[in-house]
Every structure is written in structure tokens, then in C-alpha cells.
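To: structure desk
From: M.T.
Subject: fold request, one chain
Message: Could you run this one when you get a chance? Sequence is below, nothing fancy, just the single chain.
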Amino acid sequence: MGTPGIVTGQGRPRRAPSGKRCGHGPRGEAGLLELYHNAMSACSQKVRFCLEEKGLEWTDRHMNLRAGDQQTPAYLALNPLGVVPTLVHDGAVIPESTVINEYLDDIAPAPPLRPAAPVSAARMRLWTKQLDEWIHADTGVISNALAFRHQKLALGPDKLHELIARMPDPAKRARYQSVVYEGTASPLFIDAIKRFAFLIGALDDALEAGPWLAGPEISLADIGYAPYLTRLEHLRLHRVWDDKPRVADWYERIKERPAYGRSHRDWFDEKYLTLMAEKGDDAWPGVAAALGA
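Reply: Done. C-alpha cells follow.
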């Protein structure tokens, strides 16, 4: 059952392509997993990717972020920051995508998505730590400055002001206001795109040691970074790794995984893909100039 008062998706369990229920019994080994998420949200993609790699059955509670589902009192009772995703496991509420994925690896350890070797596990956590420290925020800056600001400006000044004022996180509210009103002229955008270019170089260097970011097997580090390179690709910024062959190879191998298809491609929204591609292409000359390309 979904939480009363929260507008959700159809509540349908996600299953393997064969149509067979994942796990054992009516709820699977892990119990009842409900995911409050959004189709195109990078953090939601990250958790869906983990769920699908594990073969776990989960119940879809889709949130319409454009309609403000995440800001309803009922959802804020689950997640006071008003962000997605949130996992509810047999009534226990687990927020934050990085925490959720480690939790899933705890409750369903096979197949393991954290390296057994302590050094490799530390390397994995160093990668996922950066996601929370700056990569996710910078992705929001880039996405809004290039593409989504156009949707917000179309709301008109009064509705846009109301939307921004309802954001509970002051730092996020200030970033959002800057990139929506200033676009690629925002200093936040210039800094973010330069940091991402540096990150792509760091990823390429790390992949020199092996096929995956934290060792010989795929881990939560790879699962965590997949949505962010997907967003860059959708914004036509994949050109940033044209000269980074190891990153290009890693990303293609990620996209070939069946779990990527079920967690990402099955949820892509064509209208957003079209918007991101068009606005990304329009902005690329200025982005290339900012990067010194």
C-alpha cells in the first residue's frame, strides 16, 4: 500500500523481462520494497539500477516532480527535504540514493555490489562520496541552465517565484534561481561544466587500472556514475569524453547491461530527451569555448 495522500504511479511491481517474479515468495526475499522515484531523476535511476542488478522486485511509486508531488505534506512526512528517491522497506523509510544502494546491498548481498577487498571498498566509497558532495548538485546546475530553465520560464514570473519559494533547501533554492534566470551565463554553470570536464579525466585515469571504477567487478561506484554520464549524453555533452577512450568504453559496457535498460531506457521520457538534445546542441559552441576546446 502507498502512503495515504501521496500521488503515486500505478503501484505496479517491476519484474524481470521474462515476467517471472524476482526473489522467492509473493514479496521476494527482501520483503516489500516501495520506491518513490521519478522517471528521469538521476538519483532515482541510480537506485533502480541497483534494484535491477540485484533482481529485486519492487513497487513503483512514481512522483510527478513537475506537478509538485514531492512537496505534498504526505511526501514531506517521508522525506522532509522533498527530494526523490525514497525507499520504504516493510514500513522502514530510507532516504538518499547512496544510502539506499548500500542498504540494498546489505539486505540482498547477492550479487555483491561492494568489493570484498578493503582497499577496493574504500575506493568505491571515495567515488560515491563525490556524487553527494558536488556531482549531483552540479548536474542540476548544468541540466537547468541548458534545458529545463526554458520550461520554468514558460510558467510566468508569478508561478516561477512560487515554485522557487517552496523549495525547502536554501542552498538548492539559490542555485536554482541563478541558473533558471541566467542560464549558461550563470557563474555556477561555468564552474560546473569545468568540474565535470576534470571529472571525466579522473574517470579515464581510474579506468586504466581495470574495467570498473573500484576493481575487477561492477560496483556501486559504476552504478552511481551511470546516470550522470547518461544525463551528459542526453544534453549532448558526450563530446566531453570524445578524447577519453576508456570512459567511452566503460559507458558503452554500462549501457549494454540488461539492468541499465530496465532502470534507465525503460523510463526515458521522449519529450525531455528532445528538449535536452535541442538545447544542448544550441549551447555547445559556448560550452566548448568555456572549456577551451
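Reply (cont.): The two ends are 52 Å apart (CA to CA). Let me know if you need anything else for the meeting.
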